[in-house]
Amino acid sequence: MKTAEPSDPLLRGRFTDGRNEFCVRASSVDAPDSFQVYVPGERADIVMIVSGINSGYLHATWGEVWRAYSPEWKVWLEDTAFKVFYRVTTRPWDSRYCDG
Fold first, then answer.
1. Is-contact 4 64, C-beta < 8 A?
2. Which of 22, 29, 36, 49 is least surrounded, with the fewest CB atoms within 10 Å of its CB?
3. 3-state secondary structure of 36
4. Phi and psi, residue 92, nearest 5°
């Protein structure tokens, strides 16, 4: 996993599945309620958006192309994206489940 770029305070970091590279970007600097995973250089290519972070009612919305990927890959991507998102915050989360 790569670290966030200092030029964008909302960018939490990057990771790869071995084929594609992904960026994780928070919705705001303070108390973001969502984050998005997208392909770098292609901000319009949204892989996944996770909303409901502050309420605890998490929901994942998948981009059109990415919906067809296997359930196992999607679980891996969600888990990895959460790790990237939360590694720069002090707010602990014991468990998470996205209904999406």
1. no
2. 29
3. strand
4. -85, 145
Q: Torsions phi, psi of 80, nearest 5?
A: -65, -40
Of 29, 18, 12, which Cα lies nearest the Cα of 82? 12
Q: How is residue 27 annotated by DSSP?
A: S
Start-end of H helices in the chain: 71-86
Cα separation, 5 vs 33, whole angstroms: 21
Residue located via tokens 């770029």: 5
Count how many residues are written for the chain: 100
Is the confidence at residue 7, as pLDDT, over 50?
Answer: yes
pLDDT at position 99 is 53
pTM reported for the whole predicted model: 0.77
> Are the beta carbons of 84 and 24 closer than 8 angstroms?
yes
74 phi-psi bin (left φ>0, alpha ψ -120 to 50, beta other): alpha
Spatial separation of the C-alpha atoms in residues 40 and 25, rounded to whole Å:
11
